[in-house]
Amino acid sequence: MLITNDDGYLAPGIRAVAPAIAQLGYDVLVVAPLVDESGVGSARAGMVDRPIRTASEEENGVTFTGIEGTPALAVTMAVAGVFGPRPDLVLSGINRGLNIGVTIFHSGTVAAALTAASMGVSAVAISMDSDDPRHWPTAATVAGEALGWIRDEPAGTTLTINVPDRPLDQLAGVRHASLAVPRRTVLVGTTAPTGEPMITLQRTDATPVAGTDEALLREGFVTVTPIIGIREVRDDSAATALAKRLTA
Predict the structure, then answer these.
(1) Phi, psi for residue 107 in degrees, rounded to 5
(2) What strands, in cross-sheet order, belong to the sheet with 221-226?
(3) In what residue span(s) does the Survival protein SurE-like phosphatase/nucleotidase domain sit (predicted)?
(4) Which among 67, 153, 199, 209 is least buried, having the fewest CB atoms inside 10 angstroms?
């Protein structure tokens, strides 16, 4: 199985989860970006017909390989057989910081899982509700249990999971969660002191919608959301309308 992330192959989350998953008996391959590639989504630009720089080191009996590229590229290369046999599962994480709501398509962590699914490999994306997590073992335990479930599901099954940063015995439980429209932060367009345009994040006091990943995380639950990638809407009304406008 493949373990990747978007925080980089030196990040503490991937260093914590890979040995834990290996101890469960999985044959672990770790391939992740050389540097932080957070927020890159499913980008794989420049992946064809060029050599890709790598680095590797061993820790706790696991070899960690970094590539000059994104998490989606790491998955693509691994599934294409660059690093050996095609992985049968992908684990993306543990991400430093949550990945909630409809904006997860920006997440390199979640995009890595969806890239795997698009290539017929089931995947779990796992994130922690903290920008400075302390309880990595909690998320690693959840990740191991999620892999134990997903390996028996149809190929291409994908989960995004968020874990509160607390000891395992202090979790409120595990709940299915719908994707929130995030309310804790909002994007605000502004201008830098030097005159260039920029975007900032502002915190809000809005109450999250019950049953969403945002709300359940606040209550201390592990949130589990099955997701799928791009798919067509089976509705030909747009094409019919455009055809009529072009021939009017």
Answers:
(1) -75, 130
(2) 54-59, 62-67, 29-33, 2-4, 89-96, 122-128, 158-163, 221-226, 173-176
(3) 1-180
(4) 199
Q: Is residue 7 part of a domain?
A: yes
Q: Evaluate whether residue 197 is within a structural domain.
A: no
The H or E element that residue 146 is part of is helix 136-150
Report the DSSP beta bridge partners of residue 223: 162, 175
Q: 3-state SS of the chain: helix, strand, coil percent to 5?
A: 30, 25, 45
Q: How many Cβ atoms from other residues are within 10 Å of residue 235's Cβ?
A: 8
Can you tell me the distance from the alpha carbon of 162 to that of 196, in angstroms, rounded to the nearest whole number?
A: 35
Please give the angle made by the CA atoms of 215, 217 and 221, to the nearest 5 degrees.
Answer: 115
C-alpha span between 152 and 208 (Å, rounded) = 33
Domain span at residue 144?
2-180+206-247
CATH number of the domain encompassing residue 216: 3.40.1210.10
Instruction: Say which residues have a Cβ less than 8 Å from residue 200's Cβ, sequence separation at least 6.
Output: 187, 188, 190
Q: Is residue 42 part of a domain?
A: yes
Full pLDDT tens readout for the chain, 248 residues:
999 999 999 999 999 999 999 999 999 999 999 999 998 888 887 777 788 999 999 999 999 999 999 999 999 999 999 999 999 999 999 999 999 998 898 999 999 999 999 999 999 999 999 999 999 999 999 999 999 999 999 999 999 999 999 999 999 999 999 999 866 666 678 888 898 888 776 766 778 899 999 999 999 999 999 999 888 889 999 999 999 999 97
Q: How many other CB atoms are found less than 10 A from the CB of residue 95? A: 28
Taken in order 81, 156, 91, 99, is the CA torsion positive or negative? positive
